Amino acid sequence: MPCLMRRSALSETLLLGVFLLASSSIQAEERWIDDHELEARFRKALVAFREDGEYPDGKSIVEQLQEGTYSFDIPSVSKQENPIEGALAATYVVGHIYKCKDCDKWHSNIAGGVAISPEGLLLTNDHVLRFGDGAVFGVMNAKGEVFPIKAVLASSKRDDIALVQIEAPSPIPYASFSEKAEVSEKVFVFSHPDTHLFSYTEGIVSRFYLDTRKKIPRIQITADFARGSSGSGIFNAEGKLVGVAVSTRSVHYDEEEEFPHLQMIVRSGVPLVSIRKLLGIETTAASAKPTEKH
């Protein structure tokens, strides 16, 4: 957005001093995220994958979304020195490219995913992959590295969770699973709300509940996420996975009003019990049911 005011020389000098003071506290590894550049890089890489002709298109991906589990060997767990950096390294953009009816340009559709093994296995939502018009699907990490999705290994439309295989140099950073999650436990999310890529938010586990219509297990959290965040990991304070973001629901005081008053947003995720079921992991007594602190 263009600046609409001109600043005086004194103001410029003061601002420069503030910037230099602030920048002295910025660590060398920090960087500014350019959403437009990253999305363009993602789109360009997926166009190249499509031209290679070696990777499944949207129709093939949808056909692979068959109900079933995967025999998952849990990788060894190493304690993260920095849980937030570890979670970020395991976080991916997941999406596809397509062409609309109004132009010949390629467009991208972006959601989230989280790596759970060094061999390139990622979790995302089932609905993130149900785009038959997608030309090709791929993922991108926080470094801007883009990799194609080779196959869907397991999925559950009911629980809205899927496991995919990406083609990437092994090993890749990955998130390990928490044994259990508790109400009031601190959690954080790295997600891509409305293409604000790799956004960090934090909150707590609010409750565990069953979906009203289908009685599907869900974890409810207070950490913010929004459209474009489906499939993103929900992590505990140790950087271990406790769920995957799946949906939001706005609660209004009076739905019939012309401008209904927004009271709160309910943010839900796929819990560990559903993820373990997809991966064929035996659920231990400790993780079979969520716990509540008293």
Characteristic key phrases:
alpha+beta; 6-stranded antiparallel β-barrel; Thrombin, subunit H; 6 helices; 294 residues; 2 domains; 6-stranded antiparallel barrel; disordered N terminus; 34% strand
How many β strands by DSSP?
Answer: 14
Main CATH class of the largest domain: Mainly Beta
Distance between the termini: 50 Å
The chain-level mean pLDDT equals 87
User: What is the domain total for the residues?
Assistant: 2
Describe this structure in words.
The chain has 294 residues and is α+β, with helices and mostly antiparallel strands. It has 2 domains: 35-67 and 75-166, Thrombin, subunit H; 182-288, Trypsin-like serine proteases (Thrombin, subunit H). It has helices at residues 9-23, 35-52, 58-64, 83-89, 272-278, 285-288; strands at 91-99, 106-115, 121-124, 136-141, 146-156, 161-166, 182-183, 186-191, 199-210, 217-221, 233-236, 241-252, 262-271, 291-292. Strands 1-2-3-6-5-4 form a 6-stranded antiparallel β-barrel, surrounded by 4 helices.
